[in-house]
Design goal:
CATH class of the largest domain: Mainly Alpha
Oligomer: single chain
Distance between the termini: 37 Å
Number of domains: 2
CATH topology of the largest domain: Ribonuclease iii, N-terminal Endonuclease Domain, Chain A
Structural class: alpha+beta
CATH superfamily of the largest domain: Ribonuclease III domain
Shape: globular
Length: 189
């Protein structure tokens, strides 16, 4: 459900941004979407909706604060959006995303320059220079569910492959993107 909800969220926020900024370049819209759809914002929304209290967690996760863990709250919000989409269709999902994320969109638009994370910077660079989008694959996940370490490979064939490690898939992706940016700054591409 999280997978589907992530796609629905991305589509709906992309559409909202495109409608508000029809003349914006793709890179600018991509950067704004990343500023709006991030773990911090989604976790904050998940908390405000009380999703942490509804989570079914394993004993270890419950004992280690899983109900307030940002990654789980963000994932729960994405899964909830998938349920809205499956139950009510795209129009219902659009309405929920519009209501929940318009304040985040407004905040992103009011900032002169939204912060660029490594993954967004790398995507913009490759879309502009090579007209391709890097993608990420999980190479390994080690450890118990409540304390897992992820290794992810960033692939931008045929140009570049890098790996990153983190305590969540998203952090590992950021680490792989950061490594790619350091490689590119060294002049490899």
């Amino acid at each position: 459900m999280e997978f589907l909800g992530d796609a629905v969220l991305s589509l709906c926020v992309s559409e909202l941004l495109w409608r508000r900024l029809p003349q914006a370049r793709e890179g600018e819209l991509t950067r704004l979407r990343a500023a709006v759809v991030n773990e911090t914002a989604l976790a904050r929304l998940g908390t405000s909706l009380g999703l942490g209290e509804t989570l079914r967690l394993g004993r270890g996760e419950a004992l280690t604060g899983g109900r307030t863990k940002p990654s789980l709250l963000a994932d729960a919000l994405e899964a909830t959006l998938a349920a809205v989409y499956l139950d009510g269709g795209l129009d219902a999902a659009r309405a929920v995303v519009d209501r929940l994320l318009t304040p985040e969109i407004d905040a992103a638009l009011s900032r002169a320059t939204p912060d660029l994370d490594d993954k967004t910077r790398l995507q913009e660079l490759f879309q502009a220079k090579h007209t391709l989008t890097p993608h990420y694959e999980v190479v390994r996940a080690d450890g118990p569910d409540h304390h897992r370490t992820w290794e992810v490979e960033m692939i931008a064939d045929p140009y570049l492959r890098t790996r990153g490690v983190g305590t969540s898939k998203k952090r590992a992706e950021q680490a792989a993107a950061g490594e790619a940016l350091r490689t590119l700054e060294g002049g490899s591409t």
